[in-house]
Design brief:
- The structure is a single chain.
- The chain is an alpha+beta fold and 709 residues long.
- It has 2 domains: 395 residues, no CATH class; 218 residues, Trefoil (Acidic Fibroblast Growth Factor, subunit A) (Trefoil), CATH 2.80.10.50.
- The protein is built from 20 helices and 16 strands.
- A hairpin with a 7-residue loop joins strand 7 and strand 8.
- It is elongated, with a radius of gyration of 33 Å.
- Keywords: Endoplasmic reticulum, Glycosyltransferase, Membrane, Repeat, Transferase, Transmembrane, Transmembrane helix.
- InterPro entries: ArnT-like_N (IPR003342), MIR_dom_sf (IPR036300), MIR_motif (IPR016093), PMT-like (IPR027005), PMT_4TMC (IPR032421).
- Belongs to the glycosyltransferase 39 family.
Length: 709
């Protein structure tokens, strides 16, 4: 004990020393990146290009109003909103015009801060990726400086836009995997999605090589496999779900976008449909008064509807109709959307006490609440869909056309064949008993005689459960009035209910994720839209902002020399790789095996990253802009120092060629800086004369804005 005490005293006699290694290159690059991206961040104090788009979502976050955006997962939007929150933004600004001056309540610097920080941190990330790929610090420094001096990345990161955040997380994921792989190797290797798939493929390839390594035991291989499953599957999925959880927790109020969601989703939001449906009876019973919403929601949300007007005796193409009462799908809430669920064996139109619930497989009649006519279909062609049956409300004309108004209720999302038809939650099909046709929204707009409402038909070929054939009860009350006059008053009155219908997080996540993947905004031609082929040679640009009086303007334009060099580097890499492969097939090894593995690894990341972030745009049906190319460009830029170092190490083997090659690189890099400096005025929005603006139009296809004198 005494010896232990003496050792403790000896420890206390010496100072506690902590040593740390500081990479001066990394610190200097980070500082330069912050200066280049944060300098004059509040300028211009006006809406710049797509800030008019993303700003709307920031305002909705500030007001906790639900929205849907098909651009991807909500993390980027939440980070933009975080900037607004930190700056004390109240969400009150009308985002309706590019160039509009920001009011004093808009914290411009704070809103642009996180994209700028993400853009700045891409510079040290590029440096570290090259280091982890086992390239020299000189090559890594070159990659970082090229990112630093890339005008397009500077412009895109200085405003409230998402691309710099996307690129940051892409590079961070690549670096994280490389560190994970190198650490293991030393101890014993919505656009972000495509990079993630690339990393999964590389991880699978690495593990495949491990399977052939007999020095690794089965237990060690299992540990490697589980480590990859944890880091590349379980943790990313958990993080992805957590983003949506925060998103849905923050946005709990009804707004303009919730109408594309299901009734159950809408009812879970505060206000909107929830004000109408909160506390409705859960179980649909005989005598229930209901509105039926089509689940598809396309081309717009609509409810089963009827009115006193009848189908024309003859259509314009000469075909005849039944002249029965029209049944349509109406995109607005209306008293004519109400229907009564009737037991075919009884005459009453009220709910009995106790209520008799309708179950899967039960046969019902649907009575239109206002006109009291029965939903009917028969072997008469629909007005716009002649291969389908006409759906009507039956009028007895005393001719040989009997009523056919029996419908079987099929609950599509049932758990058992005895399930009760539930308000909002149940998705049902109505199958016509006589003809087996299914009640369906065709989506076609009727002519003037049908008030441009949407056509409803009886679909004879009812294979599967297409959403156009599926309906859910949205508003629901238990009918109490047997007399028609009293019932009309009842139908006009608001519903009052007694059961809350809250969706689970996973149900809301699944629905929202599906909407994000399938939602298609109407694509329109834009002045600055472009094709993916235009991006490689930068034959296009985008004017982001123009000062109303001076010649100051901001353009998305890249460093021309860097873009050209990146293309050349890609071609050289592919050609050299093919040459090496052919020679290796002939057992001729031009470079050492470790150099070959280094070359291949760099290609997997840089060329692979370019491919997965560029080629998918050829398959996308959306309006494309130059900024969509920036993630792919970033990987292509990383390839430049990879190729240069390879050429220096393996093709310039004597002193003289190496010296000449180094001098060429210095001259080339000086030219890169010169081009950056030349175009920096339109990256930062500095005032320029007409002559200076004309001098920047290096390509006739560039749209540099020049005011008429």
């Amino acid at each position: 004990l005494g010896q232990t005490f003496d050792r403790m005293l000896g420890f206390l006699k010496n100072p506690v020393v902590v040593t740390a290694e500081i990479n001066v290159n990394l610190v200097a690059l980070t500082v330069m990146g912050l200066i280049s991206r944060l300098w004059g961040l509040s300028y211009p104090r006006a809406v710049v290009f797509d800030e008019v788009y993303y700003g709307q979502f920031v305002s909705l976050y500030m007001k906790r109003i639900f929205f849907v955006d098909d651009s991807g997962p909500p993390l980027g939007h939440m980070l933009l909103a975080l900037g607004g929150y930190l700056g004390g933004f109240d969400g009150n600004f009308l985002w309706n015009r590019i160039g509009a001056e920001y009011s004093m309540n808009v914290p411009v610097w704070s809103l642009r801060l996180l994209p700028a920080l993400a853009g700045a941190l891409c510079i040290p990330l590029a440096y570290q990726i090259l280091v982890e790929l086992q390239f020299s610090h000189c090559a890594a420094l070159g990659a970082a400086l090229l990112i630093l001096l890339e005008n397009s990345l500077i412009t895109q990161s200085r405003f409230m836009l998402l691309e710099s955040i996307l690129i940051f997380f892409i590079l961070l994921s690549v670096l994280s995997y490389l560190k994970f792989y190198n650490l293991q190797r030393h101890r014993v290797k919505y656009m972000g999605l495509f990079t993630y798939m690339l990393l999964l493929a590389i991880a699978g390839l690495h593990f495949w090589h491990m399977l052939g390594d007999w020095s690794l035991s089965n237990v060690s291989l299992l540990c490697h496999f589980l480590a990859r499953v944890l880091t590349l599957l379980i943790i990313p999925v958990a993080m992805y779900l957590s983003f949506f959880y925060v998103h849905l927790t923050l946005l709990y109020r009804s707004g303009p976008h919730d109408q594309i969601m299901t009734s159950a989703f809408q009812a879970s939001l505060e206000g909107g449909l929830a004000r109408i449906t909160q506390g409705q009876p859960l179980e649909v019973a005989y005598g229930s008064q209901i509105t039926l919403r089509n689940v598809l929601g396309k081309p717009m949300q609509c409810w089963l509807h009827s009115h006193t007007n009848t189908y024309p005796i003859r259509y314009e193409n000469g075909r005849g109709s039944s002249h029965q009462q029209q049944v349509t799908c109406y995109p607005f809430k209306d008293v004519n959307n109400w229907w009564i669920v009737k037991d075919p064996g009884m005459q009453q139109l009220v709910v009995s006490n106790p209520p008799r619930p309708v179950r899967h497989g039960h046969v019902v009649q649907l009575v239109h609440g206002i006109t009291t006519r029965y939903l009917n279909t028969h072997d008469v062609a629909a007005p716009l869909s002649p291969h389908s049956q006409e759906v009507s409300c039956y009028i007895d004309y005393n001719i040989s056309m009997p009523a056919q108004n029996l419908w079987r209720v099929e609950i599509v999302n049932r758990e058992s064949d005895t399930d009760v038809w539930k308000t909002i939650l149940s998705e049902v099909r109505f199958v016509h008993v006589n003809t087996s046709a299914v009640l369906k929204l065709s989506g076609a707009s009727l002519p003037e005689w049908g008030y441009r409402q949407l056509e409803v038909v009886g679909e004879k070929l009812s294979k599967g459960y297409h959403q156009s054939m599926v309906w859910n009860v949205e508003e629901h009350r238990y009918g109490k009035s047997q007399e028609q006059k009293e019932r009309e008053v009842e139908l006009h009155s608001p519903t009052r209910m007694d059961i809350s219908k809250n969706l689970s997080f996973m149900a809301k996540f699944t629905e929202l994720q599906w909407k994000i993947l399938t939602l298609k905004n109407e694509d329109t031609e834009h002045k600055y839209s472009s094709s993916a082929l235009d991006w490689i040679t930068m034959d296009t640009n985008i004017a982001y902002w123009l000062h109303p009086t001076s010649g100051a303007q901001i353009h998305l334009l890249g460093n021309v020399l860097t873009w050209a060099s990146a293309n050349i580097a890609a071609v050289v890499y592919v050609c050299l790789s093919l040459w090496y492969l052919v020679r290796r097939r002939r057992t001729i090894y031009d470079i050492p095996e470790d150099a070959w593995q280094l070359w291949v690894s760099a290609g997997q990341i840089c060329v692979g990253g370019w491919v997965v972030n560029y080629l998918p745009f050829f398959l996308m049906e959306k309006t494309l802009f130059l900024y969509h190319y920036l993630p792919a460009l970033t990987f292509q830029i990383l390839l430049i120092p990879v190729v240069l170092q390879h050429l220096s190490d393996h093709l310039c083997r004597s002193l003289l060629p190496q010296s000449m090659f180094s001098a060429l690189i210095v001259a080339w890099f000086s030219s890169v800086y010169l081009v950056y400096h030349t175009f920096s005025p339109v990256s930062y929005g500095e005032p320029l004369s007409v002559a200076e603006l004309k001098a920047l139009r290096w390509k006739d296809s560039w749209n540099i804005l020049i005011r008429k004198q």
